[in-house]
Amino acid sequence: MIRVLIADDHHVVRRGLLFFLKTQKDIEVVGEAKNGQEAVELVEALQPDIVLMDLVMPEMDGIQATKKIKSKWPNIAILMLTSFSDKDHVLPAIEAGAAGYQLKDIEPDDLVNSIRQIINGENIIHPAATSQLEETLREEENLPHVKNALTPRERDVLAELTKGKSNREIASSLFVTEKTVKTHISNIFTKLEVQDRTQAALYAVKHGLTEGSEQSI
């Protein structure tokens, strides 16, 4: 069972999510929080697998709550579920450690699929948010010293990772083992000072580290 905590200050939103998620045989809603502070407290008490986190909430917003949760319980996944797709909300959420970013107009089935994908180690960002991020981040300056810090093979792996490929798909594409891919990804995370695949992909787009490849997050 995937244990889910819902954090949203709107009762109607929480009720709607609870009603639908309860119909899924592999998902269990273990709690509901009305604000970020309550979300942090319930995470400590309930230890869910994933938190559906609203961005704008009283007492503590979703960004602050995500930072606190990820700093203490890094294995608990955060899926942002919000109405905002602009870069001023998306980028801080990803940098805080969110593994996914979806808008509240998402279809219920797509939301469930996002939850399952995140639990399986994937990262999900709504296309509207991705499009704006890519356009904005490409305008910023590149960092040549970061490019030079990555080996050619690490650059290849990063390019494949930025396309949203799994470790198995990257291994197949580059004709190496999954273990080798995991080693390269670990080195990439260390060199770029990022925590997960989504942050690495965003960093790559932001600083032009995958120029010449088809970039998508």
Automatic annotation (TrEMBL):
One of its GO terms (biological process) is regulation of DNA-templated transcription. The keyword Transcription regulation applies. PROSITE patterns: HTH_LUXR_1, HTH_LUXR_2, RESPONSE_REGULATORY. One of its GO terms (cellular component) is cytoplasm. It comes from the Bacteria. The modification 4-aspartylphosphate is found at D54. The keyword Transcription applies. Pfam families: GerE, Response_reg. Keywords: DNA-binding, Phosphoprotein, Transcription, Transcription regulation. This is Response regulator transcription factor.
